[in-house]
Fold:
Amino acid sequence: MVQVLAVIQVLISIALCSLILLHSGRDTGLGGMGFTPASQGGTHIVERNLTRLTIVVAIFFVANCIALFHALK
Structure:
């Protein structure tokens, strides 16, 4: 069970790092790659969905950390 949780943790970590790297400052990240129209000042729906996905993956990361902690106890 610990090995399965450890592999899942590595995969979630890679996904979370990738998602965080997609977030960047103004004019970079997804917005700088052309997904955000220049006329729109706020966050585009793609940016909001990326934020939501990042939060969900972060919650899975924390939950898996807790599961690993209890599995190793």
